[in-house]
């Protein structure tokens, strides 16, 4: 166990598919400036490797699944002296919900999160976002690169293609294909899906779901479906929702990211105090 005793609740940030911990740089630095200890561990196979290094050799990403990634984060979190605020983006938001099901956090924020098992809301733009991976089931355990054109559609649909390509150079890595296939399969297999969570869990710490109005990957319909699923379970555990206008799937670094980060942190801190009192 670490000897660190933070004066403020520590924060664990979980990145999503096609990204590395670098995608969280804006929020991590912002939260550290406010006195929080912030951990941004990479997925297994990604860890602290550079974008260029992963592109050169993505083999470590092959065959990695959601359970393995969740187990990895659980080990990191259990080394902390107190339960942290856990925030995840995209598939990281799905992992956040899986970790909530393991009672590992003080509060949880899913930022444009993937949906857990049993939620079948899959808008066309979501399906299109996954097509380069899902179109080839023989590469289920592969590590498919994301093209510049597809990056523009999924992450940078608010920008010109030239500006999007610059971001692709800086941030984009190969997919961890297995998590995509597991996520889609689980949508139609609530009890047996890898991403199963107990929606009715009564002692789950508060959960906030955030979406962006013009997100192609996780459009607001998906976020609303997630919240509806938790509400329909009858659980008294708090789940709240907020949609941000004009935001894409790049919500954590898009212009105006500070508004979203501040809302997420203020909500998480306020509800962590209530939950742990």
Features:
277 residues, alpha/beta, Rossmann fold, six-stranded parallel sheet, globular, disordered N terminus
Report the average pLDDT across residues. 95
Count of helical stretches: 10
CATH topology: Rossmann fold
Based on the coordinates given, report the CATH architecture: 3-Layer(aba) Sandwich
Order of strands, main sheet, comes to: 2-1-3-4-5-6
Set down the secondary structure blueprint.
Layout lengths: L10 E4 L10 H8 L5 E2 L11 H6 L9 H13 L6 E5 L1 H10 L6 E5 L12 H11 L13 H7 L6 H11 L5 H11 L19 E6 L7 H13 L6 E6 L12 H20 L1
Parallel strand pairs: 1-2, 1-3, 3-4, 4-5, 5-6
Structural overview:
- Helix content is 40%, strand content 10%.
- It is built from ten helices and six strands.
- The longest helix is centred in the last third of the chain and has 20 residues, at 257-276.
- It has one domain: 3-Layer(aba) Sandwich (Rossmann fold), CATH 3.40.50.1820.
- The chain starts with 10 loop residues before the first strand and ends with a helix.
- The relative contact order is 0.17.
- A six-stranded parallel beta sheet has the order 2-1-3-4-5-6, with helices on both faces.
- It is globular.
- It is an alpha/beta fold and 277 residues long.
């Amino acid at each position: 166990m670490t000897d660190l005793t933070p004066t403020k609740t520590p924060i664990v940030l979980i990145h999503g598919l096609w990204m590395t911990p670098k995608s969280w740089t804006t929020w991590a630095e912002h939260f550290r400036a406010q006195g929080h200890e912030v951990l941004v561990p990479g997925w297994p196979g990604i860890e602290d490797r550079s974008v260029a290094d992963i592109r050169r050799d993505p083999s470590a990403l092959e065959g990695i699944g959601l359970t393995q990634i969740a187990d990895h984060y659980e080990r990191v979190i259990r080394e902390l002296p107190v339960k942290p605020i856990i925030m995840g983006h995209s598939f990281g938001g799905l992992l956040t919900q899986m970790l909530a099901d393991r009672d590992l956090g003080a509060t949880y924020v899913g930022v444009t999160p993937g949906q857990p098992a049993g939620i079948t809301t899959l808008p066309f733009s979501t399906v299109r976002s996954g097509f380069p991976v899902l179109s080839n089931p023989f590469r289920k355990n592969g590590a498919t690169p994301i093209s510049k054109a597809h990056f523009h559609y999924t992450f940078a649909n608010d920008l010109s293609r030239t500006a999007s390509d610059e971001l692709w150079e800086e941030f984009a890595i190969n997919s961890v294909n297995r998590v995509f296939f597991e996520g889609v399969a689980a949508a139609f297999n609530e009890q047996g899906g890898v991403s199963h969570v107990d929606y009715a869990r009564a002692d789950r710490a508060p959960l906030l779901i955030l979406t962006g109005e013009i997100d192609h990957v996780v459009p607001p319909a998906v976020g609303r479906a997630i919240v509806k699923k938790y509400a329909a379970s009858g659980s008294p555990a708090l789940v709240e929702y907020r949609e941000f206008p004009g935001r894409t799937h790049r919500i954590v670094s898009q212009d105006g990211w500070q508004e979203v980060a501040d809302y997420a942190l203020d909500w998480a801190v306020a509800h962590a105090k209530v939950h742990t009192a």
